[in-house]
Specification:
Family: Belongs to the GHMP kinase family. IspE subfamily.
Order of helices and strands: EEEHEHHHEEEHHHEHHEEHEE
Strand content: 25-35%
CATH architecture of the largest domain: 2-Layer Sandwich
Protein name: 4-diphosphocytidyl-2-C-methyl-D-erythritol kinase
GO molecular function: 4-(cytidine 5'-diphospho)-2-C-methyl-D-erythritol kinase activity
Distance between the termini: 15 Å
Bound molecules: 4-diphosphocytidyl-2-C-methyl-D-erythritol, adenosine-5'-triphosphate
Function: Catalyzes the phosphorylation of the position 2 hydroxy group of 4-diphosphocytidyl-2C-methyl-D-erythritol.
Structural class: alpha+beta
Helix content: 25-40%
Low-confidence stretches: none
Number of helices: 10
Number of domains: 2
Oligomer: single chain
Keywords: ATP-binding, Isoprene biosynthesis, Kinase, Nucleotide-binding, Transferase
Amino acid sequence: MTRPVTARVPAKVNVQLAVGGLRPDGFHDLANVFLAVGLYDEVTATPADSLRITVSGADADQVPPDRTNLAARAALALAGRHGVDPAVHLHIAKDIPVAGGMAGGSADAAGALLACDALWGTGSSREELLALCAELGSDVPFSLVGGAALGRGRGELLDPLATGAAFHWVFAVADGGLSTPAVYRECDRLREASGTGATVEDIADPEPSPALLEALRTGDPAALAAAVTNDLQPAALSLRPSLAETLRAGADAGALASLVSGSGPTCAFLAKDTEAAEAVAAGLAASGTCRAVRTASGPAPGATVLAD
Ligand SMILES: C[C@](O)(CO)[C@H](O)COP(=O)(O)OP(=O)(O)OC[C@H]1O[C@@H](n2ccc(N)nc2=O)[C@H](O)[C@@H]1O
Ligand SMILES: Nc1ncnc2c1ncn2[C@@H]1O[C@H](COP(=O)(O)OP(=O)(O)OP(=O)(O)O)[C@@H](O)[C@H]1O
């Protein structure tokens, strides 16, 4: 009997999300500065009679336990590539908020790829795994790689970034999720409504901020706080106006920066150090503007197979 294999995969926050115009293929070009943070899902692959998915954790009931699950799609893609029978039980121990803009589904896809590759002995190279990740979703390659990285294209073309120190974050988890395609559509709608147009002809190519990259490199939280931006934030706020109160509560509690994480609705707050993060977390919890509060620091390592 082959031993189960468990992979641990981090969540992400986008410290810069610059969104270009709508491309003919329905995606947007990005300058997407990812930072992996220490909130993790674990995916365990065990031999089984057929493909089966189970999920545990507080948000488990919001995750589909079938072949639409990104982890199942990852296992099927890997099995298809190598001509292997995808008879595997994937158990997802979920700690990353679901539909929260923290790439939880992407984390599970990257974790399933890594765990199944080890279980099946398919020995994929890093390049093969990254190509499969990119097919599964724009955020999935970063879930594999972790750390800090600049994502170009639709976010799948990654260049690792150096970071000078750990950054301390507080996350305010909202009630209910936001659909990523709906948030991108709302971004386009707001751009149309403002008269700029929304396509690649109308919007300048997105570029990473030199000040932001420098702040990451030097590990300076105040400089990073001054440079964080998220072009999807107006769209997330338009779809979920109550997030403005959450952002204000974090700022009032002493956060250096308050922003929507990716497509939201999780809000991310940067703090000077772990002590300041605890104070921001307490202020947010007392504000009643979110369902749960989490603290985590980053950069965190990418998808990793855990030792027995
Ligand atoms: C918002 C972010 O989380 C920021 O990292 C990502 O851009 C979203 O990445 P993801 O969830 O992996 O998204 P995908 O599964 O690749 O795409 C879902 C949908 O989001 C929209 N989408 C996604 C990525 C991108 N660069 N442009 C887009 O317009 C498209 O409508 C697409 O059909
Ligand atoms: N393994 C999975 N974990 C979570 N959601 C999944 C998974 N597989 C499929 N889904 C579906 O995908 C939707 C988006 O979930 P996910 O948690 O990945 O969103 P997200 O964190 O906002 O993504 P991103 O930050 O990459 O845009 C969920 O509502 C759920 O129906």
